[in-house]
């Protein structure tokens, strides 16, 4: 059995370990910690471990923004990212939810497409030679 829940400080080390496994360093430790403290982090708990997590904000031009989706490499292609994003879409506090990925990240672009997100713009010059594509989806905002 698996479920999605709000991350707590007791999960910080596990989430940081997963993030380090994916990106190769500990550069986002403070960002993850702050998101947990501010209740802006969801995690995917399977029966025996945490398979992934999602960070969000509510200050992207007045809208919700999924800023990070990380899935443990051994748990990829099992619906973890989809489940996290669907869960967040149901709890979003704004009528639209935005997110983004690099042009080179074809898997994430496919996930956005599969979940009904539409392209909303491009930002150049964040990662040299790899534009950031912005996506948007209408949400069911919670009051």
Short summary of the structure?
The protein is α+β, with helices and mostly antiparallel strands and 143 residues long. The protein is built from 4 helices and 7 strands; from the N terminus they run βααβββαβαββ.
CATH architecture assignment = 3-Layer(aba) Sandwich
Number of helices: 4
Mean pLDDT: 93
How far the N terminus sits from the C terminus, by CA atoms, comes to 30 Å
Q: Do you know the CATH topology?
A: Aminopeptidase
Count the domains.
1
Radius of gyration (CA) equals 15 Å
**SSE order in H/E notation?**
EHHEEEHEHEE
Q: Strand percentage, roughly?
A: 25-35%
Unreliable parts: none
**Strand line-up in the sheet with most strands:** 1-2-3-4-5-7-6
Structural class: alpha+beta
Backbone shape = globular
CATH class: Alpha Beta
Largest sheet: 7 strands, mixed
Percentage of residues in helical conformation: 25-40%
> How many extended strands?
7
CATH superfamily: Gcn5-related N-acetyltransferase (GNAT)
Secondary-structure blueprint:
Layout: E1 3-6, H1 12-23, H2 29-37, E2 41-45, E3 50-60, E4 63-71, H3 80-91, E5 96-102, H4 106-114, E6 118-123, E7 132-138
Parallel strand pairs: 4-5
Antiparallel strand pairs: 1-2, 2-3, 3-4, 5-7, 6-7
Helix pairs in contact: 1-2
């Amino acid at each position: 059995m698996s479920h999605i829940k709000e991350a707590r400080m007791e999960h910080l080390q596990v989430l940081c370990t997963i993030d380090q496994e994916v990106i190769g360093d500990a550069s986002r430790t403070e960002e993850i910690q702050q998101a947990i403290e501010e209740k802006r982090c969801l995690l995917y708990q399977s029966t025996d471990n945490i398979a992934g997590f999602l960070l969000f904000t509510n200050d992207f031009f007045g809208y919700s923004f999924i800023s990070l989706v990380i899935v443990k490499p051994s748990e990829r292609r099992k619906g973890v990212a989809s489940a996290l994003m669907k869960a967040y879409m149901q709890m979003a506090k704004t009528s639209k939810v935005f997110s983004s990925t690099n042009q080179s990240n074809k898997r994430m672009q496919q996930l956005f497409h599969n979940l009904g997100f539409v392209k909303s713009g491009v930002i150049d010059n964040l990662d040299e030679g790899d534009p950031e594509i912005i996506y948007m989806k209408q949400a069911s905002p919670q009051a």
